[in-house]
Design brief:
With 219 residues, the chain is an alpha+beta fold. The chain has helices spanning 101-113, 146-162, 169-194, 198-218; strands spanning 7-12, 16-21, 44-53, 59-62, 74-77, 85-93, 124-128, 131-142.
């Protein structure tokens, strides 16, 4: 069984994400991990490509913070919008020859501009700048929503801050309405994403973000 690269996403309060290499080592319970009979981690350069997909299906590139392709174990994405993300983790086997990051990125850019990264096959041999390399790739999609979750917390904090105020009844009702709306939108977005209704999930989470913005305007 070929190497199967894996990633794990962690949301950070605000609008940042951490993406970890979750491939782990080869064992009888992880046949696609690093190590014999698969390549070791030291045999690879790893690249992460990320795209944000809006409710209209338009993809926008998100560039991770600078990382060392030979040593990276995690990537940081800063100032990202909530919602649907496409992740591609790509490994280039460097056990025989080591390509430059510039050449690999130029190759990947050409694929993105053409057939798309989804056209690449895990374990295939590709030609980069005149030399053949074995390429490993895994694609995944997630729905990170750190801003929406933080907005829901903020709405609850507004409610709690108004408790005991005899003249704040209307403000409390408004804050509770924001909280309940945000909670419902988040639950709906996650449910739809898990069911494969990704466009509906993205539309819903964009609505949640708009609701959060109104909360800040009125609080």
């Amino acid at each position: 069984m070929a190497l199967g690269l894996k990633i794990k996403q962690t949301e950070i309060a605000g609008n940042s994400l951490t993406i970890d290499d979750d491939t782990q080592n080869y064992t009888v319970n992880n046949l696609t991990g690093y190590g014999t009979p698969n390549p070791d981690r030291t045999d690879l350069k790893l690249f992460l490509r990320v795209f944000h997909v809006d409710k209209d299906g338009v993809e926008a590139v998100i560039t991770p913070e600078t990382y060392n392709t030979a040593l990276v174990t995690s990537w940081t994405l800063s100032a990202v919008k909530d919602g649907r993300k496409k992740y591609y983790i790509i490994g280039i086997d460097i056990s025989s020859t080591v390509p430059s990051d510039i050449d690999v990125n130029a190759y990947l850019d050409a694929i993105v501009a053409g057939a798309g990264l989804g056209s690449l096959t895990n374990g295939s041999v590709v030609n980069i700048a005149g030399t053949n390399y074995t390429l490993y790739i895994t694609a995944s999609e997630e729905l990170p929503i750190p801003q929406a979750r933080m907005d829901k917390v903020e709405a609850w904090e507004v409610i709690e801050g108004l408790r005991g105020c005899d003249s704040c009844e209307e403000q409390i009702k408004d804050a509770e309405a924001f909280y309940n709306l945000l909670k419902g939108l988040i639950v709906s977005a996650v449910y739809n994403f898990d069911k494969g209704n990704k466009t509906r999930a993205q539309t819903t989470i964009e609505k949640a973000n708009e609701t959060g913005e109104k909360l800040y305007e009125e609080s």
